[in-house]
Structures are given as C-alpha cells and as structure tokens.
Amino acid sequence: MPLSLPWPWPWPNPRSQSPSQTPTDPRPFFPPNPLTSLLSHISTASSSPSLGAQPLWARVVAAAAAGAAPAPAPAPAVAGQAPARVAIEERLAGVPVYALSNSAEEFVLVSGARSGKSLGLFCFSRGDAEALLEQMRSMNADMREGSKVVTVALNKVFELKVNGVAFRFIPDSSQVAKAITERKKLGDISDGFPGVPVFQSRSLVLKSQNKRYRPFFFRKEDLEDSLSRASRQQRQLNPALRHGDIQVCALEEIINAMKDGSSSKWDDAVFIPPGFNVSTDLSTAAA
C-alpha cells in the first residue's frame, strides 16, 4: 500500500532559503560534469579565431524581469495544447532556477561560436550559476560591473518569448551523479544522463480533492527524507529500503510528453521544489 499525504492546491510557496541555509552536498566525480563541459566549451570558443568580431555575449530584456506583459503565445495547433501549457506552468511554479543578469536587469545570453544562435542558461544549482558568473567575468570585461546571479521561477522560463534564442538547463551535477547511480542499480551502464534528473517513488503519492498525484523531486535526498518521515508517520516500512523503489526520469522528457498531449501518462505528475519536504511542509501549509 503506497504512502499517501494530503496536498494543498494551489501549490504553496516554498520557504525562502538563503545560500547559507542550503544544505551542502558532496559532488562525486563523474564524466562528464555538465557545468565543467559547458565552461570548457565557452573557454575554447572565446579563444577561437573563427569567432572574428562576433560578440561572446548578447543581451535581451526578459518580459518577466522588465515587468512588461509576456508576448502573446501563438494559437495552439492542437486542441488542448493551451490547457496543457497552463498545467505545466502550474506544476513548475515555485521551482527556482538561476540565471545571469547584467546591471540593466537583463538576462545575459551566450552566443554559440558555430551556430550563431544565443543560449539562455538556467542552472539548477546556485553554486553552478556563481561559478559560471566568475568564468564569464574573467572572459568579458562587460560582465565585471553589476553582473549577478538572479533567481527565476521555472514556470516563468516558459513565458519568455525571444526570437532566435534557445534556453538550456544546467542540471545540478551532484543530482546527475545520483541519477546515474540509481539507473546503474537497474542495469543501465551509461555514464551520462540526458537532461535534468527528477526522482520519484512508486510508494509515495499526494492526495488533493480526491485526486492522486505523483511527486517528482529535484533532489534525491528530499525524496528520501519525505519517504522516511511519511513511513514513520504511518508506521510502515520505509519503501526507500526496497530495491528499485526509487526511479529517475529526465525533466525535459516529462515536459515534452505533457506538451504533446498524446498520452495521459504524466497527467498526475507534480514537481517538488528543492528543499521542500512534502511530509512536513505540506502538513504545515494545510494547518
């Protein structure tokens, strides 16, 4: 019998968390490290003669940051596509990602040396964003004054409508390592992970208004803590101790499937912000 917990809707805002409050987590080495690979690529591109006069950085005002109304979305090509987009944004509300901003409160975009396209980078670890900022400051004088790391709600990223710009997520390398470890337990020998890992358990469900939802966590330790607390509350064996109870998926795959709308497999998926323990935070919010 799965562990079930009450779940208030709409999603409660997670408690604010300063960098000093964020739990430290050792980052085991694994090939490749997403941030290290990115920094290496940028460093190589910046010293390449093929760049010519092409600037390494481009800047664009994000509608959400500037306070302007988002650009109108194109008419959906498939019936139900707009409701699906709304559902995705609702489920991603409260999940923080970290981007680089200049002194004019504009998001900073990195230009690809070969494609000519601009990339907006969003890190799932504030530490990774800080490291990226330091790397950029060392390479570009314009980044040295007023540049900073800013927090953006993940659902707002999908509202940004910028021509010629692709957005790329940089996953937390420690969570990628844990995702690889979990997959290897099930026989997957790959040394990489295709995207941002999210963790779930077959034994944990959330209930709201007579509906059941599957919580997906951005940090494996948050899932383990929730399972541990819920099992104690309901006096059941901790399901995390059972082999294969924890599964890992790529966030991008889930979102793309939800956008497509051809399958109802992910209709009950909800995303839990890092540091948010459903067995304690949700009961507090419901009180």
TrEMBL record:
Chief subcellular location: plastid
GO cellular component terms given for this protein: chloroplast
Biased composition (Low complexity): 14-24
The keyword Plastid appears for this protein: yes
Family matches, as InterPro entries: Tic22-like (IPR007378)
Gene (name only): LOC109728110
Region (Disordered) location: 1-33
Protein name as annotated: Protein TIC 22-like, chloroplastic
UniProt keyword list: Chloroplast, Plastid
Chain intervals with Pro residues compositional bias: 1-13
One Pfam family recorded for the sequence: Tic22
Annotated compartments: Plastid, Chloroplast
Chloroplast recorded as keyword: yes
Species for this entry: Ananas comosus (Pineapple)
One Gene Ontology biological process: protein transport
